[in-house]
């Protein structure tokens, strides 16, 4: 990954280490946090929201099976909120408004499923 903010970007030369060409990527995952070459957090927030939305399915199933609200909140905090809050001090301040709304939409959906307000 090459981070380059110049106006006139030249195509970088291939990089070789021990005779092997190093692959260039636009983003990579390090400690469950996705870092992109333009230093925006859109890739990370989209992946985080997608992962949290997958967990919302299980929250819906638990609600349909008649689980009480207290246990639904515990499930939310342990499986969904933990995904949303992981490394939040690193990436949340750099998120765009669109990315923040995407994450808030996941929280709002969980609140509707559970039927109570979730302080996050």
Automatic annotation (TrEMBL):
GO molecular function list: 2-oxoglutarate-dependent dioxygenase activity; methyltransferase activity
Name of a matching Pfam family: ALKBH8_N
Domain Alkylated DNA repair protein AlkB homologue 8 N-terminal: residue ranges: 41-82
Name under which the protein is recorded: Alkylated DNA repair protein AlkB homologue 8 N-terminal domain-containing protein
Organism: Micrurus lemniscatus lemniscatus
């Amino acid at each position: 990954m090459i981070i380059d903010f110049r106006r006139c970007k030249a195509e970088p030369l291939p990089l070789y280490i021990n005779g092997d060409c190093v692959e260039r990527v636009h983003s990579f995952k390090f400690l469950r946090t996705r870092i992109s070459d333009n230093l925006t957090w859109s890739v990370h927030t989209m992946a985080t929201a997608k992962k949290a939305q997958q967990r919302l399915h299980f929250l819906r199933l638990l609600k349909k099976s008649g689980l009480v609200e207290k246990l639904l909140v515990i499930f939310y905090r342990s499986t969904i909120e933990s995904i949303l809050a992981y490394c939040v001090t690193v990436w949340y301040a750099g998120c765009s408004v669109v990315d923040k709304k995407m994450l808030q939409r996941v929280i709002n959906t969980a609140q509707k499923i559970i039927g109570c307000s979730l302080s996050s």
